[in-house]
Amino acid sequence: MSVKIESVSPGSPASKKKIRGGDVLHSINGHAITDVLDYRFYLNEEKLVLEVEKDGKLKKVRIRKSETDDIGLEFETYLMDRKHACKNKCVFCFVDQLPEGLRDSLYFKDDDSRLSFLFGNYITLTNMSEEEIDRIINMHISPVNISVHTMNPELRVEMMKNPNAGTSLRFIKKLADAGITLNTQLVLCPGINDGAELEYSLTELEKLMPSVQSIAAVPVGITCHREGLANLRLFTPEEAGRVIDTIDAFNKRLTEKIGYGIAYAADEFFIQAERPIPGENYYGDYPQLENGVGLWSLFKSEFMQALENEPSDAVKEERKITWATGVAAYPLVCELAEAAQKKYENLKIDVYKVTNKLFGSTVTVAGLLSGKDYFDTLKDAPLGQKIIIPEVSLRKDDDRFLDDMTLQQLQQALGVRVRPVPNDGAVLLSELIED
To answer: Would you identify the CATH topology of the domain 95-291?
Structure first.
């Protein structure tokens, strides 16, 4: 196996050894290089012997470096390979519920272990071989984020429509037995893998502690584009409450046994159950923030702490801000806006609830709002000096919404500066009170 080198950083150790773009990297210290995991793992040695193909001839290149130094090789992609596509046909798959006409990349379903290590993506393990699992173990790569959904093998096959879904559960135990840290998630569908099945999954994952360090329960997402798909529905408030109660009972038993719990219901469950979001102590070290577990709690805590620390005369002149967010976060945003206005008499904040028209009103999170959703809500509103929106509505690399509208296009259409703000309460307060 080999990987083509795209370019070499000027002045780098590789450049000084006359390695150039177009050369092919075959091995490092005798280990074949097939992708980013091999490369980063075997690059950690101080003395390297690279086998490089130059103009059709193999040459050995010796490089000495400090342990943490990069040698300057650049490749066509992060993975140095193509992404591994998902082979499942999950009944709850969100990609299958997308409308037509979005950018092509949104329709690609990845299930790639390397993306888990690099970017925190969750993987199902259904397209992995014993050799790939062994490589993770041999390289001591942690944590691995796993989409479990259920620990019942037959039900997992039924939910994921993949005959390997049940047998691949053995990989979770193999990784746990090897001491690999695991974060797990359960996408729950009412009447399918909640109730007694949820209790079973929690109990089975408990057996794999301490390697399993967290379990997130996330409610199924339902869009208005489900023609021809499985008959799924949202949780009722009562059902969502039972999920929370099941997780709380599990954590209570664990806490009595070992002093702490590991399972968490996503913020959406509390919203659907019409229950208050728990405080900071509920979430420990917030191990599942990327799954929407504890985002509200942490955001509110950061904001209130920053608000307390700011002087009361921080807003010296009249200031009007427009704040737009999704339906789910609207009550929290109103609470924070009220707290800020109470402290600063010169600050006026108008909060707008943005309904999702692209995916339907059942999708309430801000991260799935389109540029047109924001425009339709704000186009006739009396806008302030600037508009604040959640940063999660945009792609990180090019400030583009899901419908391909850019941040600049939204600003031009509304005629007001639009400021995307990360999930950081202190940064948000700064945006509210500073230019």
So the answer is: pyruvate-formate lyase- activating enzyme (3.80.30)
